[in-house]
Design goal:
The structure is a homodimer. By secondary structure, chain A is mainly alpha-helical. In chain A, helix 4 packs across helix 5. The longest helix of chain A has 14 residues. Chain A binds a DNA duplex through helix 5.
Chain lengths: 125, 125
Amino acid sequence: MATNKEVEVPELPETEFLAAREDVVKRVLSQQPDDEILYDLAELFKVFGDSTRIKILYSLFENELCVYDIARLLNLSQSSVSHQLRILKTSKLVKFRREGKSIFYSLDDEHVREIISMGMEHVEE
Amino acid sequence: MATNKEVEVPELPETEFLAAREDVVKRVLSQQPDDEILYDLAELFKVFGDSTRIKILYSLFENELCVYDIARLLNLSQSSVSHQLRILKTSKLVKFRREGKSIFYSLDDEHVREIISMGMEHVEE
DNA sequence: TTAACATATGTTCATCTGTTCATATGTATA
DNA sequence: TATACATATGAACAGATGAACATATGTTAA
């Protein structure tokens, strides 16, 4: 779906650069994914960039939970949890199933665990 | 450095939960890293959560570049690039070396590439 | 159908964030 | 040392964001 632009690389005159040689300029420009993709990527990380959402994702690391229990476990308001779950849902980071009055959320994707784990490694130094 | 809290898990009465069984509650609480770690983790992802910074990081994926050339390549102002590089520097995502009047930035860490690549996989579906 | 419960949504508000513009700092060269 | 150049920093402002509160929606059971 996402395609890097491999064909039409804008030809900036090399002389305008300070140090970068022509091959480097070309490489960077051709490797750079489309702006739209980069925007989406930033949007994705933005979702991970809130400690409430991180806590929610972590609580779902190895089990599904309903909204009420997430709120209870993490000492958050129901409203706040629900709002954040909506964002996580929109980003396809969590999925859900209904069971009676409750709705159980779980991680949608193995990527979620991988991304968080990778971040953890960096944070833990 | 970062340690999960394995010892003192607050004992919430199970009856207050809706659906989660006691073992699940205990597991979640014992797995959840310290708040401080989770906060740092969110802070890290927040840094990735801006398309300007993502673009800058991508431009440094396979080569070092000086500030002026980054700005030129990405069509950004020098000031903006410099401000963002400072944030990336603070988060230990980029390192730099001086060469005459120019300062060359590069990715600090293999984690950076891995985190971005992982995010890309999710975005690309 | 009504009441109670679980979750979702809309709105408001204080706070945070990124950009721009102006200026400062640091470096090399004439 | 004076000047130009490369980068960094400070201040101000507009736009984004998360929390809280009130309320709506959807589900079950009486």
